[in-house]
Design brief:
The protein has four helices and two strands, in the order βααβαα. The protein is mainly alpha-helical. The chain has a two-stranded parallel sheet with strand order 1-2.
Length: 75
Amino acid sequence: MPCLGQTPLSAHVLDANVFLEYIYNRSLQDKAKQILQDAILEKIKIMVPSLVLDEITEVLCGNMDNTENVECHLQ
């Protein structure tokens, strides 16, 4: 609960696509970076579904034929 005079933080539910935009340098990467930066700086609260890591892993493992591409995106 916020202290008197403080505005409560807005909460955002993120799916795997937000993280994949960031990892793969897609068209919405800047927006994904901003969301994550705001969460780190505690400007917003984020929540993620319990399966988000499984979803990200499934996409990354689907690219295992080209591991150089995956490694490049993770650096």
